[in-house]
Amino acid sequence: MSQPQPSKPDIQTQFEKIYLRPLGLFAIAVLILLISFIPFFLVADPILEASYTSGIANGWEKVERWDSNNTNLTQESFPSDGRGDQTGQRVTFFGGDATPHSAKFLLYHAPNWQTNSKSVPVLLVHGANQDADIAWANPNDAGDYGCGRMSCPSTGLMQALEADDFKVFAISYAHKNGDGYFWAQQVADAIDVIKDKTGASEVDVVSWSKSAFNARMYVSDVKQSWGTAYQGDIRRLLMLGAPNNGVDWSFRHGWLLTLTVYPECGGSINGPTAHDYIYCYFSWRYGPEWTYSSSYFPGSAQMLKRWDSTYSLPVYEQDWYTTYHGGWGYYTHAQGINAYTAASLVNTVRSAGTDSGVKVHNLCGNQADIALLHNEHTGPSDGVVFINSCNDSTGITNHGGSSVIAVNHLELGWDTPAVNQIKSWLNAP
């Protein structure tokens, strides 16, 4: 007796069970896998929010406000007394917000940014407590003493490079002491915008102090999971006064630097201190918000490293031991530098190595004579960073050369010897 033949619908059903449904499940699994990797390869483009072309001070032709379009760049904290707020025309450019969200950044355009003939654009990146104006266009923007010496010039590196036929841009960050991962991300974002504007495939980056450390993070792929991997788009990275092997300046000099920070002691400096207690004006002042664990200065502890085994601490400065190692001194209490070095990225960056396609240069100063500041004097320095830290080449894969010149840390971006050296490197083949 012959077996009944399955009907056409039955054949279709069996085919689906054997072949199509497993394929469907496989396709779903592949889709889920791809979705899980989206944050790692899908980089959102920055968004242009506003453009300003008139009434711009300090010689710039245009300023744009951009949003990095990355939700991982969060609102960072600003000191409640306003010392870290944006001021001057930058408030206008940030949409009237003196404490802007850290996803925002300003992109400054120098005159002739479209027409100057040199093919590789230049991005200028300021350091902590600076901005594009005072760092690159008008060192006198904050008045006397704001540039590292008593009297300051009214033009800077921007004008010098523009006159030398470079297409010049500069970034201004929302937060003056922001997280290094944030600053590194926005270096990548600014370069992306500049490439689109100019058609260039590579950009030269001139970075100063904290931003030099953060720009190096970008070319070394030191990033969070959400960060942009290095895109092969920097030709030269010039680092001015970079703490390549870290800095411990705030912890080396007893209570002197802390006095310039605590508002109850008459201080107004926008930076972290070693102390959570200090005695002044006949009272103990408690200020954990002024230490390296404060949310006001998220990028500062990332650059810490001990140097006491190389250069001895100044035993004649008040509370020198407890400031560095922790404990109660006569007039202060400190957690000690070791309490904060867990957040340091110095060894991480040095071991990561810079991309071999990027020629890296170190420009260091050797004059510890910053006006109105207790300069780093316990070893050869520029007043803030030891020369041996600035000049450290560990992890720099393609080293283009270093130079040590007779300027202090705050003169590295504008003084004549610095400008001449920067131009020489940028003009090299």
Description:
This protein is an alpha/beta fold and 429 residues long. It has 2 domains: 47-246 and 345-427, Alpha/Beta hydrolase fold, catalytic domain (Rossmann fold), CATH 3.40.50.1820; 249-343, no CATH class. It is built from 11 helices and 13 strands. Strands 1-2-3-5-4-6-7-12-13 form a 9-stranded mixed sheet, with helices on both faces. The protein has a 4-stranded antiparallel sheet with strand order 9-8-11-10. It is globular and about 60 Å long. Residues 1-9 and 25-41 have low confidence and may be disordered.
Short recap of the structure:
By secondary structure, the protein is α/β, with parallel strands linked by helices. The chain is 27% helix and 16% strand. The N and C termini lie far apart (91 Å).
Task: Give the tags.
9-stranded mixed sheet; 429 residues; alpha/beta; 11 helices; 2 domains; 4-stranded antiparallel sheet; Rossmann fold
